[in-house]
C-alpha cells in the first residue's frame, strides 16, 4: 500500500487579487509562503516523510513543494491546474456557476472531464509505477477537486468546503484504487 499526500499550493498573488489562475501563473504571496511553512511544521510535528516528491510545473506549486520538503523532486506538466483558456488572468467574478463542465472549451480551455481524466491518469501513473511507500504531490485546487471527484466513491471521508491553500488530501493506494483517508487543514488565522 502506498500513501499519497496531494497538496494544494500556498496563496498566490492572483488568489489574493481574485483572478482566474490555471495554466498561467503568479508567485506565492508572503501569506502563501507562511502557509507552506506552517504546513511544513505540521509534517515535522507528525514525523511525516516522503520517499518521492512531485510537483506541477507551475511556479506556485514548485515553490510550495520546496518549502514543504528539501528533498529532490520531479516536475510534471500534467499536474497543472485546469486550463481556463482566454479566461486566464481575468477576474474570478466572470466564472460561471459550478459545475463548469465544458464552459471553458469555447475559450480554448479544457472541459471538466478532460481535466479529471488528465489529473487522475497522471497521479495514477506516478503512484502505480513507483516503489515508494509515501509520495508527496503538490498541485492545484481545481485539479485536486477533480481528482477527489474521480475517487469520491471509494471512501467515506468527504470534502465539505473549498480546498484550502496548503491543505493535504491523504490517500491510500492499493489494488488500483485511491481511498481518501483524511483531509488535513491548518490553522492560518494568525496570518490574517
From TrEMBL:
InterPro entries: His_Pase_superF_clade-1, His_PPase_superfam, PG/BPGM_mutase_AS, PGM_Phosphatase
Native source species: Brochothrix thermosphacta
Protein name listed in UniProt: Histidine phosphatase family protein
PANTHER family membership: BROAD-SPECIFICITY PHOSPHATASE YOR283W-RELATED, HISTIDINE PHOSPHATASE FAMILY PROTEIN
Coiled coil: none
UniProt GO cellular component terms: cytoplasm
Pfam families assigned: His_Phos_1
Residues where substrate binds: 8-15, 60
GO MF terms, alphabetically ordered: phosphatase activity
Family annotation (SMART domains): PGAM
Amino acid at each position: 500500500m502506498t500513501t499519497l499526500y496531494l497538496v494544494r499550493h500556498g496563496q498566490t498573488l492572483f488568489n489574493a487579487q481574485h483572478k482566474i489562475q490555471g495554466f498561467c501563473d503568479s508567485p506565492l504571496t508572503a501569506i502563501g509562503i507562511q502557509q507552506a511553512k506552517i504546513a511544513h511544521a505540521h509534517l515535522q510535528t507528525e514525523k511525516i516523510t516522503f520517499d518521492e516528491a512531485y510537483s506541477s510545473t507551475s511556479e506556485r506549486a514548485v515553490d510550495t513543494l520546496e518549502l514543504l520538503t528539501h528533498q529532490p523532486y520531479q516536475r510534471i506538466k500534467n499536474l497543472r491546474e485546469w486550463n481556463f483558456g482566454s479566461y486566464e488572468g481575468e477576474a474570478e467574478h466572470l466564472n460561471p456557476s459550478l459545475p463548469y463542465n465544458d464552459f471553458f472549451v469555447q475559450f480554448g480551455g479544457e472541459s471538466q472531464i478532460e481535466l479529471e481524466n488528465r489529473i487522475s491518469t497522471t497521479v495514477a501513473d506516478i503512484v502505480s509505477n513507483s516503489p515508494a511507500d509515501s509520495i508527496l504531490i503538490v498541485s492545484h485546487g481545481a485539479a485536486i477537486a477533480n481528482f477527489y471527484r474521480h475517487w469520491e466513491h471509494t471512501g467515506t471521508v468527504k470534502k465539505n468546503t473549498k480546498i484550502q491553500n496548503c491543505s493535504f488530501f491523504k490517500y491510500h493506494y492499493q489494488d488500483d484504487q485511491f481511498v481518501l483517508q483524511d483531509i488535513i487543514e491548518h490553522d492560518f488565522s494568525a496570518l490574517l
